[in-house]
Amino acid sequence: MSPVISPIETKRKVSLPSDQQADGRTLGSDEMEAVCQAIKSGTLTSTKGEYVKQLEQGFATRLGSPHCYASSSGTAALHVAFAAINPEPGDEIITTPITDMGALTPILYQGAIPVFADVDYRSCNVTADTIAARLSPRTKAIVVTHLFGNPCDLNPIMELARARSIPVIEDCAQAFDAKYQGKAVGTIGDIGCFSLQQGKHITTGEGGLTVTRDDEFARHIYLFINKAWGYGDPKPDHYFLALNYRMNELTGAVGLAQLGKLDYSVANRIAMADLLNAKLQGLDGIEVPKPVPGATHTYWKYCLTIDPKVISGGAVGLAAKLKERGIFSAPRYIQKPAFACEVFVNQRTFGNSRFPFTLARPEAVDYRSELFPGTFQGLERILVLPWNENYTELHANFLADAIRECAR
């Protein structure tokens, strides 16, 4: 437990740990020793080595999933999931407009159409109602993104999907160890995807993990990572079009060492967020994060909802005031919805073909703002604060005092 810090100490300017530097990460001697051992083995490819396999087995055991496959990035982890769904050209995959582009372009690479569902403006997560509004006979899969580590309300989403036999892919890139009704996110849908990118709960710089309980999906995921080559098959071949998305042994070694630190990372993120929540509770014009009932938020980032009618300048104004105190926050999270980016607006894909947009229903690529009230309201009001596992009570108190002062 961190020592209790007096209010006087929080008035001083405090340097917040950064997840882009050593002070905000748990990287250390364990990772260095693991990398050294991997190098000494002389085997750096995961097809022959042991570290990536151990990482896969360890993460699968942690989640209670029979299958886990490591890949080269969080984007790759999602791409192999979309490949396992095996969409026909022009099929539709429902997803969120508030996400990283790496969660969207793999859909296009598989010849499918990302169809954007609106979000709840407070959580910026998709809901069963917003998904239902975008369903069509061409819907091949549904992606639910647990944004910032805050789980979507999964029961009604799963009920909706199961009634139509539509597979659900959980994007858990920001939600390591988050729970919903006592179950780990990533294991509730058909496929779960995780990212080991620099700023995540644990990191290898870049890397991904994909889990599933479905044996057929697992087989396709494994093959897609390996250029569709059937390692260990009686008569292996390259069975279909696929890429090399393998994780190397150096990355696997770091990941295995980091996996042992995930409990600490998640527990401290939650503890410091709970402290900050308590200190900001009841502050006029500011809402603290609020998970749906039965969900556990694991705080990849800490996000406030700002009422511009109460707080001068809204999220942007508050961010400017915080910057004066050395706190660099991100109003809006992303500057515009994903569908407003050029790749969607101008349909810039393969050469000048516009494929697969040429196969899309007009309704699937209708990006009028009136269809996305929650998205635009959410982006207007959200303020993303920096967060990582090495925050202490000193940092939480410093943030609380600064936010309260700036809000006045």
> How much helix is in the residues?
25-40%
Largest sheet: 7 strands, mixed
CATH H-level name of the domain at 29-260... which superfamily? Answer: Type I PLP-dependent aspartate aminotransferase-like (Major domain)
The number of helical runs is 14
Q: What is the CA-CA span between the terminal residues? A: 31 Å
Strand order of the largest sheet: 1-9-8-5-4-2-3
- Return the string of H and E elements: HHHEHEHEHEHEEEEEHHHEEEHEHHEH
**Poorly predicted parts:** 1-10
Mean pLDDT: 96
Give the percentage of residues in beta strands. 5-15%
Beta strand count: 14
Could you tell me the radius of gyration in angstroms?
22 Å
CATH third-tier fold name of the domain at 29-260: Aspartate Aminotransferase, domain 2
CATH class of the domain at 29-260: Alpha Beta
- The secondary-structure class comes to alpha/beta
Q: What is the second-level CATH architecture of the domain at 29-260?
A: 3-Layer(aba) Sandwich
Q: Outline, from the CA principal axes?
A: globular
Task: Explain what this protein looks like in three dimensions.
The chain is α/β, with parallel strands linked by helices and 408 residues long. The protein has a domain of 232 residues: Aspartate Aminotransferase, domain 2. Helix content is 35%, strand content 13%. It has 14 helices and 14 strands. A 7-stranded mixed sheet has the order 1-9-8-5-4-2-3, with helices on both faces. The chain has a 4-stranded antiparallel sheet with strand order 10-12-14-13. It has a 3-stranded antiparallel sheet with strand order 7-6-11, with no helix packed on it. The longest helix has 19 residues. It is globular. The two termini are 31 Å apart.
